[in-house]
Amino acid sequence: MTGSSDIPFSSPGMREVVLAARNVAKSYGAVHALKGVNFDIRRGQVTTLFGENGAGKSTLMKILSGVIQPSSGEIILDGESVIFQSATDARNRGISIIHQELSLAPNLSVRDNIFMGREIKGPMGVDFAAEEQLTRKLMEELEEDIDPLTPVEDLRLGQQQIVEIARALSVESRILIMDEPTSALSATEVEVLFKVIRDLTAKGVAIVYISHHLEEALQITDHAVVLRDGMMTAYAPRSEIDLNWIVRNMVGDNYDLGNPPEVQPGPVALSVRNLTVPDPKGADYNVVDRLSLDVRAGEIVCIYGLMGAGRTELLETVAGRLRQDSGEVVLEGHEISHLSIAERIARGLALVPEDRQRDGLVQTMSVGQNLSLASIASFTRGLFTDRKAEAALIDRMIREVTVKTDGGGAMIGSLSGGNQQKVVIGKMLATAPRSYCWTNPAAASTSAPRPKCSACWPKVPGRGWPWSIPHPR
Amino acid sequence: MSETSISQNYIKRGEFSLVRLLLEGRAFFALISIVAVFSYLSPNYFTVSNFLIMASHVAIYGILAIGMLLVILNGGIDLSVGSVLALCGVMAGAMMQGIELQALGVILYLPVWAVVVVTIAIGGLVGAVNGVLIAWFKVPAFVATLGVMYVARGIALLQTNGLTYNNLSGKPELGNTGFEWIGFNRLAGIPISVLVLFAVALLAGLMLSRSSFGRWLYASGGNERAAELSGVPVKRVKITVYTLSGMLAAVAGLVLASQLTSAGPTAGTTYELTAIAAVVIGGAALTGGRGTVRGTMLGAFVIGFLSDGLVIIGVSSYWQTVFTGAVIVLAVLMNSIQYSKVARKT
């Protein structure tokens, strides 16, 4: 493994470093999210950050944009050591960030969202006309036909992401951090975004880009940095790297992309027939429209689609959270549409949700209570829960999915993102499922679950069949 | 690596333990300091008989507060408990006067135990209405229970035409005497109402810490979507907690009517706020998922002992209001300090 201090600083053809992290570390309690990372952002160039979920990418970006403070280490802006008091402080110094999660107010218009918190003031209060004009210009630049006065909630997810991008662009910062900006964008929209990025770099803007679409990121990047377990494992300019190089450095020595284990598909285990699901928010269209699908035992079926295409809704309907309008879901020969979520879990169907904060974890509970949440019935004796049986289950799951934790009693918030995701997976594995609905394995990571979750992935086909939705494109 | 980090972590915890102890045990320390201060100020405060009297006052708030705790753990709020308390007291009073069945031409006198059972059932029914409105019809808890608060109070007023039932003692020849027993009698020197409070607290504590329903409740209060996707019947949990809250309000109504030997339709006004205060002082989070019976009991005793203490040393009731309010604000302030620490870690 490469030590954390030896970065090739002065290769020829490199522009000057505008923002740099030196030996930056961040700990949450006993968990070390970053362990002394050096990172350079260069003027007019795109630096891409690769790494599995929980490798510390987002933590590093939050430190560089002032959202959180490092536990130790130094941030150097234009050659001078600085401490960002807040995200606003960093923004005033020319650093802006597009967060992974959308941070828009859905009830406000596109214009109001873009200028939220830094409204243009005129003699009569906010100068809405000027804001609208600038918004229009931004939308033209992004080749998106969105009226500045549309409420954000009326836009589809991809367009909302465009608004998020437009907001970061409107600051006209020198350093722009993009944490997964394209997860909901169509291929054409990504093309436009890349054109915008090239325009920006031509103007001298430094860009940090994070994406799980490795091929896509390779198109735009000038330098690649790979993080693993909070350490920087590799650094190279674009000319020296390819896809294999990235994956090898992301995953580590025991990397083996391999194929899914060879399993002879058995009989049809899950069958979806003409499934139609109305929009859960009450809009008058169907998010899933007459979809039919067969999944055999031992088979891994991948469902592709952009964010907002209905992947999550399909699986949430199969799992029982959403109600279908028509069609049926047949599990191992039994129609299960009328069953509750608990009954479906009891029949061996498990959903590993995509958004661990929203759908996966109960933040007010401990690691152990989260792990045992879906299998409470298995350790309930009469009226009360059996503490010993629960502790045994928790210990077994912590070992099986290799959660790094102080123990089952630790608060779930003390874990790193990747370990939290393992808890979500462990919770569903604890129910001994035979069928999986797995949305975005390990939360949108391309290769993460296999090596790290070796305890669960290879076993899955043996036990039955996983059914997963990888990331779009 | 993991072993060293664990031991380091313990050392860190050791350093902060005094602050943590003070913060987490704040309701306990508040209670002790209240007792100490009033014992110093008044010779009558620190006596067994006074503590028993104060405890029987606390019983009413305490029983309501435990019901409120269940609702707040679920991330909801129940503003109707004060009115349900009055409605149930009035209904019990009406049953003690005899129910006239005009169709049959008879007047029905229920024995006291049946009055108690029917009253608790009425409270449970009103609570279930709350729960159904909130869980199935997605009415926000604040609005649903606010509406039910008015409706219940109105029905209580209609029932008695605004008057109060003063005679709850029943008649020996009808076999329905003994209603005062709940409010006045003692077992081994301890008022029945206090015993009822502790029995309710014990059952609720067991339910929360040991039963699977308790786990469901904490989970659905902490993150309803995650709980639902893990197979927790979140709607059933919701309806159950509001039903239990209504039933406990009925129990409190019975205790109060028995203590006062009268049942009036205006009893229990603003008691819901006292119950919420007790839950909050006990360290529960209004956002749901955090809180314990022990804390809520301490919270109820803090409020009860404080206001009774102020009465004993002769402070005007206006000042009592000010003091109680200050204690509530202080408690919420400490809650937010405690939980923001946890939140920052995530």
UniProtKB/TrEMBL annotation, chain A:
Domain of life: Bacteria
InterPro entries linked to this entry: AAA+_ATPase (IPR003593), ABC_carbohydrate_import_ATPase (IPR050107), ABC_transporter-like_ATP-bd (IPR003439), ABC_transporter-like_CS (IPR017871), P-loop_NTPase (IPR027417)
Membrane topology: Peripheral membrane protein
Keyword Hydrolase: yes
E.C. code: 3.6.3.17
A cellular component term, taken from the record's GO annotations: plasma membrane
Protein name: Monosaccharide ABC transporter ATP-binding protein, CUT2 family
Organism (species): Rubellimicrobium thermophilum DSM 16684
TrEMBL record, chain B:
Protein name: Monosaccharide ABC transporter membrane protein, CUT2 family
PANTHER family: ABC TRANSPORTER PERMEASE PROTEIN YPHD-RELATED, ABC TRANSPORTER PERMEASE PROTEIN YPHD-RELATED-RELATED
Predominant cellular place of this UniProt entry's protein: membrane
Record's subcellular location: Cell membrane
Keyword line: Cell inner membrane, Cell membrane, Membrane, Transmembrane, Transmembrane helix, Transport
UniProt GO MF annotations: transmembrane transporter activity
Pfam families cross-referenced by the UniProt entry: BPD_transp_2
Membrane topology term: Multi-pass membrane protein
Lineage: Bacteria, Pseudomonadati, Pseudomonadota, Alphaproteobacteria, Rhodobacterales
Transmembrane segments: 21-42, 48-72, 79-99, 105-126, 133-152, 188-208, 239-257, 269-288, 295-313, 319-337
CC annotations in GO: plasma membrane
UniProt organism field: Rubellimicrobium thermophilum DSM 16684
